[in-house]
Amino acid sequence: MGALMLRHHALDTFMDPKSVAVIGVSRKTGQGSFNLIENMKAFGYEGKIYPVNPFAQEIMGLKCHRNIEEIGDSVDLAIISTPREEVPRIVKDCAGHGIKGAIVVPQGFADADADGKALQKQLTDISRNDGIRILGPNTLGVINAFSGFSSSFMPVRREKVPVGIICQSGIFFVGASTFTGMIGKGIDVANGCDLDFADALEYFGEDDDIKVIFLHIEGLKDGRRFFDVAKKVTRIKPVIALKTARTDQGAKAASSHSGSLVGAHEVFEAAFRQAGIISAKDPEEVLDYTKAFLYLNPMKGNRVGVLTFTGAGGIILLDTLEEQGLQMAELSSETIKTVKDLSPEWMPIHNPLDIWPAIMKHGMHSVSEQALKKLLQDPSVNALICIAIAPNPSQAFLDATDVIRETVAKQSDKPVVSWLYGPNQQAVSASLEEGGQVISLPTLPRAARTLGALYRRDGFLKQTHTDAPRFKVDPRVRELLNGLKEKGSSHIQGKKAFELLQGYGIPVVHSQFANELQGILKAAEGLGYPVALKISSAQITHKTDVGGLALNIGNRTEMESAYESMVEAVKTKSPRANIDGFLVQKMIGGGLEVILGAKRDPQFGPTILFGTGGIYTEVWKDIAYGIAPLSPEEARRMIRQTKSHEILKGVRGESGYDMDILVSCLLRLSQLMMDMEDIKEVDINPFGVFSEGGLALDARIIL
Amino acid sequence: MGALMLRHHALDTFMDPKSVAVIGVSRKTGQGSFNLIENMKAFGYEGKIYPVNPFAQEIMGLKCHRNIEEIGDSVDLAIISTPREEVPRIVKDCAGHGIKGAIVVPQGFADADADGKALQKQLTDISRNDGIRILGPNTLGVINAFSGFSSSFMPVRREKVPVGIICQSGIFFVGASTFTGMIGKGIDVANGCDLDFADALEYFGEDDDIKVIFLHIEGLKDGRRFFDVAKKVTRIKPVIALKTARTDQGAKAASSHSGSLVGAHEVFEAAFRQAGIISAKDPEEVLDYTKAFLYLNPMKGNRVGVLTFTGAGGIILLDTLEEQGLQMAELSSETIKTVKDLSPEWMPIHNPLDIWPAIMKHGMHSVSEQALKKLLQDPSVNALICIAIAPNPSQAFLDATDVIRETVAKQSDKPVVSWLYGPNQQAVSASLEEGGQVISLPTLPRAARTLGALYRRDGFLKQTHTDAPRFKVDPRVRELLNGLKEKGSSHIQGKKAFELLQGYGIPVVHSQFANELQGILKAAEGLGYPVALKISSAQITHKTDVGGLALNIGNRTEMESAYESMVEAVKTKSPRANIDGFLVQKMIGGGLEVILGAKRDPQFGPTILFGTGGIYTEVWKDIAYGIAPLSPEEARRMIRQTKSHEILKGVRGESGYDMDILVSCLLRLSQLMMDMEDIKEVDINPFGVFSEGGLALDARIIL
Question: Do B245 and A319 touch (CB under 8 A)?
Fold first, then answer.
């Protein structure tokens, strides 16, 4: 532990205060009062509580103070539940009296109207200037079952479990049973005017009480800091995330071309993957993965052994295992022999190991124990799934939980999950889980997905991480960019765009610029037909859309007519576009069109993308994302993630394409984005890749 | 009801026998005995039971008979639990004594070794020849909670619920709580040596006790009959299916080119969709959809209104709604005003309708009731989701279930689902569901998916169904086919394949056949350069793989060199191929390459496919399937289902492509497959589609 090397953390004050001032607390108690002090006491808080309410003398036996000043004692933390207008003044007051932290409970800030947004901005400023840290607004605050402190005005259960949750809504405190199932410590960052995910994640990363961290994220303030903290914390303990507001964010981001590609959700997923965060796609996965990481051994390979009381169960499993990158283990001959000897002669024995016919011959207890023991010892098995019955108490002879629990307790270094079917699933599952070494999942697909998560975590921990390489680049790129900026250029295309890319060692197609027909014809002769002709205009983003692209021009006559139709088409379809000129390019056949792109994501900053290129890029949506700076491994992973990868490897008699050039160009693009903060977006589409080498065939850079 | 018009069904005997002979019943009773008669009596069977066991005098107070003969009374149904070898003899004996049906319980038939398969074949033959119907082998038989009959040797609960399940494993009887949750009637078709899914589906389709049917399918014997029965039954009542063994089947089917495309699972999905069966992708969907179809009103449009106690909940919903083709309703101004007046001034009011701030002001009961009433009346809302709290009994003031239940009871013609979060989800959900008009789902994504299923069912019932058209075709196609068959041709390519397609009105590219260079050159002159050159050989399936395809040949010199390299390449890469000759085709640019294909699926027979064509067809796997005969609506649906559809509509300045020609060709292909049983497979890839018209550019037909 201790890898983050923090001595004192801003959240200490929030999670374990010795004294709290509760400002704006109600006099009412009991049902429907949502009284914060009442809930705090019920939770077991034993520190000092100072109620502040100018209209009350006493609340729950505690003397009321009219204001902070009047407390006259040092206070660690303030919890504020007043109308929103009063909050900034009170926070300032708290800071003035040396209070280090404030939890701002009420709604009506950035979650509401313009006034609310302005009020929240004030809070951020106060926090920066007056040195007080703020959690919220719009928050239930924190829960700490270990210290016994909770600021939630909704009742929550106190359970000393090693699960830390960080969320943006009280729903994850109140509705924990649907999500993590339990909470040992919780931080509701909510609107996050000051303290945010990175702070809370850092805190739990350091906290030895916490073994599994769950994040509910709607949006991040500083994605880059979060990303950096997460990369460290996930090396120490598993972090599970449920990202919501996926489609909403997607819609927002869909405003421009590459905007719709770098949909925020895909970037989140890429950031999660790179940082080793386990992404849960629904609440069930949160529940299952939390339990798995708390109780199960790591999964050191992808081979699963299945012990089952039913043949059909094994088949249901197969469908999900494959999707998770897992496979049925080829069982050792010893395991097979053991079960074969117990089974009827006609029974084919293989994995999934259907022991029902053997049970009918020799009884449930003995068969289950022998088979399970062999599976646990079988070196070809990395994880086990047990499919057994959950009978009513009157049919307890069908209940295999004792055998499973005891056999696993004797010898297990593998994860063991189970699915119990029958009328008494909940009670029998609870009994199976008592030993703390086996978990029971409500369905087989969920059992398989849970093993998938364990396996991915093991893979992440085994990954080798190389730093992003530094390429030698042309120092004139910065000058060139500065020059363009000074001229007020924001959309760079054609020649200039190619120059910038070449400066970073990205190869570009041989091309010449011309601004009238004679120059174009001369350029084409020089390059040698066939050539392509492209319009160059800062106002034209998609050349194809306006007839600004002609390919495969074979000779002078064709060029003349291509030129005329292009000028005509562009005039009609984009009458206000300023035409800078034309780019004449050598036509190069036999390549595959991919897209290499980059963008500054509002949350994670420089982000690189790779995928299927050409004019149908947006139809195929076959794009992989990576957060810069990319490591070579990460660049390769991006390529592998796309369907283009199958084509790049070579299909149907083709010899395959040069993937090294793609890796190199992605890394160079990554370096360009890290070096040049002025570049907002790069879109190399198409980049033509060949059996050897590759070339940018078109490029667009936005400053 | 009664749409299937059956008087007496073979399964009547099985579901409601007046007398049963139980052959091979054990003398043991009690725990671990799996005694069938004991379970049958416990279930409540009141008919006559005749135990048959030559070694016992009496079982559970019933006189034992040594054999069927000895019973000396008429018996409706036999249940056989003997060692497998004895089963055929016993079934024959039963038939000889006038018994109409037999349930064969033991394992070890087609589920086991070669001997078992032979035994099962004997059973099928006996059933056909001796007029006895058989359920099984390897089955728990049937459950009928209404008549009180069950043949299951595993204990099952008797619940008179209108849910009928048809399955291939006892797991769905014993583990019902994981799947449908409950069973009113169940038929375990298991190995299906005689009675199969179509029979059972037909039976439940007719059965007024049953309102929702669930199918667990691993594989079908006669998919076409099943498909025809399903199309009728789904018009009367909802049918939900869980298809398992997906990947396994997929792997089996992946042996040849079109084999890997027409992966059986995709065909199943297409058949389900066409027949109006609701496909569940996991056990949770089975559970949720069953409940929804039992209790909820139909969903007449795709707009959802959300009442929520938490803002975060609404956001979680959005992600799944979109994926289901549903959308957040734009609420009426009256609904908005009602909630706005109750909320704090700063609160932005929209759908999802977050009523928490209003509750804090005016109390839970009153606000919930007013808002819900307005949502139920709001004409812009087709379905409702209520997100509320599931508190412990000590916090009952937070429990809105009474209000929700009562308000909905007063006025509801819309489906209302809810998600309750909090520590007491199960109990509070049960209380909410008591009224039988609202259902509670364990998570929000599941709530959204459940509404999606209701909405799709409504869409299916509204679909207009046109018959497949009959095109006038060239009668010589049959002669041509017969001729090819006589010559023993099985792989038809090039000229002959084009002739067959043209006979069915599918346009093909202008092309000429030649078998040496001089003929090729002449053909090319005639067609006019540029042309394509293609090898023609029955042994070469994928021309590209062996260098047997050259495109864009511009002149005589290019043709000479293309010819030489092709001959050379094919000799090297496919030395044993018999070269019939060469096809010279006019090159036609500007089209989009799609694939039109057909195959005889082992389960569903003639199946048509459409998708992205070209050499990367297998990379993109962008294929839609339809069971022939296709209706025009179905052909259009197939096209819409692919990503190619986006391109066909026209993107990025392109004008779009001729979809009518595609529909017409798919329908003609469908007719060809229905007419010509000798054709196993058709593969038109690529088919070039243009802004007007389209042409088969290459085709392969397998007999």
Answer: yes
